[in-house]
Design brief:
By secondary structure, this protein is mostly helical. Helices cover about 65% and strands about 5% of the residues. The chain contains 10 helices and 3 strands, in the order ααββαααααααβα. The chain has a 3-stranded antiparallel beta sheet with strand order 2-1-3. A hairpin with a 2-residue loop joins strand 1 and strand 2. Helix 2 runs parallel beside helix 7, helix 3 runs antiparallel to helix 4 and helix 6 packs across helix 8. It starts with about 20 loop residues before the first helix and ends with a helix.
Amino acid sequence: MRYRIGTIALLGLLVLVGAVALARSAGLTAPFPGIDRVESAAEAARNGDRETVLLVADKPITAAELTEMEHWVAANLAWMGEVGTRMAVTEEQRAFLERQARLIEEYGKPTVALAALIVDRTLEAEAQRQGLWPDERTVQARVERDRDLAATSDDPRIKAYLQAFGETAFWQVHYPRVVALEIAKERLYQERTKDEPDPTRRQARWLAEERALVLGAPIEVVVPERLPASIDAAVEYLKQYYDLQSSVSSTG
């Protein structure tokens, strides 16, 4: 399935930034590296500027979302550094983390944040176009499941968002939007790869499908002065990102 860093989709914000599946095997414990940036991300999500900066496949990206994602990129860089130097990972995993971190640092956090949101909006639009967007009942069931999981977790990233939003606003307003996109991505993945039984080839196919969708998405800049990085740079990062992911997928 798609890359996730924790038990709930909130922590899937890091999909485009690094090898987040390593979180389960690395044994990383609190204090979580980069938690200050996660707290800043939560604050941006709660109180940030809602002005639309650009449209991707006719889906808006706001100034607040760009700021939130940039903080997540910074947090994930800190996490990758911690895992790569202190945790029990294989040499292959460590090498991948180092390559991913270098790629992020080469293009810069604002560019990577913009790229991540371009991917999200592209997949959101495609899922809706194909009738794969989840209904309210499906979303609510996932929210309830994840809320139960969160109640048993001491992950400070979850706590940062709960503190910023408050329990009611987070679970009833913010998180349903996050989880709807997560479910839509899962469904899109299934739909595009369902006839491929081999896991490695299935992942390779999905990467090719996603790359084609994302790099072909129409982008309209609405407020150029609010754009934190150039569209061209974000597209170039995405090409490099997909090349890196494909090289890992092809080796199993």
